[in-house]
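Aim 2 progress update. The chain analyzed this quarter is reproduced below.
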Amino acid sequence: MTQAQAVTSTAERHWAGIIADGVFKVALGAGLAIGATRLDAPLGVPGWLLVTAGLALLIGGGIELRYVRGRPARTCIRLMIGYDGGWALATLAGLLVAWQGGTAGGEVWLGYQVVAPLVLAALLVAAAPARPGAAPTAG
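Predicted structure tokens:
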């Protein structure tokens, strides 16, 4: 494999991961919105919050998919790392609240799902576009 083939292969894997991230957000959003009436009791949250989180994820994931080739891979990956790091912290915070006997664990986690995808989408829209004709870079 030549160096050019290795770079192309790496860039293709990064783009595939970025697309998969957007698809996951859209699927999770649809699942939350559609399943709100079944998930509200187990998560201990109102159905409207599940629908709101679902819509935010659908919007955020859709924008991510729309801009995936229009923004540098490095920008997309950095935003995804920030989003996923926050997701992990929100999940941990929600679990800690629940383990302490609190009832707001679901609200903490879903609150992040409402805000973070919209922030990621706004940052992605505001990011500088990829240079026309430039090879995708992810490093």
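The chain is about 80% helix and 0% strand. The radius of gyration is 17 Å. These observations will guide the mutagenesis experiments scheduled for the next reporting period.
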